[in-house]
Amino acid sequence: MRIGATCSSFIVALACAAAVGARADEIDVVDARLAASEEGLLLSADFAFDFSPRLQEAVANGVPLHFVVEFELTRPRWWWFDQDTASRHTQWRLSYHALSRQYRLSSGALHQNFATLEEALEVMRRLRNWLVLERSVPLTGSQYEVAVRMRLDTAQLPRPLQVSAITNRELRLESPWKRFIFLPPKPAAVPSPAPEAREAKESTVR
What we know:
The protein is an alpha+beta fold.
């Protein structure tokens, strides 16, 4: 009960201080790449960012932060609008547990605990082998445009902080879209049968 009251008091105080907040650093998508595998296309990306003092205070005072990584794959067409091929997103939930004094990073049913905030952020900065397109989905174009970005989902902040985030950049953290061209691997050519094997097959048919 006391923890909940402390968290509520902090949210109100943080919302009141929004007007004097300085601009927070944006997320930089340092690198992003697609790789073909037996399952399909896997995305790996590296992000560079740090938390503003406001975000550090928020998570340390019990406010969970939700981050979303978004992926889009489109096929450019000069004669019409680009064709949307795939759109995916994955989410992290970052929270702090005062009793255990640990930060928890969750993605779906999976979670991991960290002793410091920096350790949790290091994991968030390195996205590896995220399946964004199943192998069963055909790629019919010769090249595609890939777009990747990461952002703090302010819609999942407590209501007072949602309102404050509109004017206070210290409560927002996001990257611009990182775009690059992806050339899908060509299907392996089926080798032609050797002349001897072809003649043997024809003899069998006769």
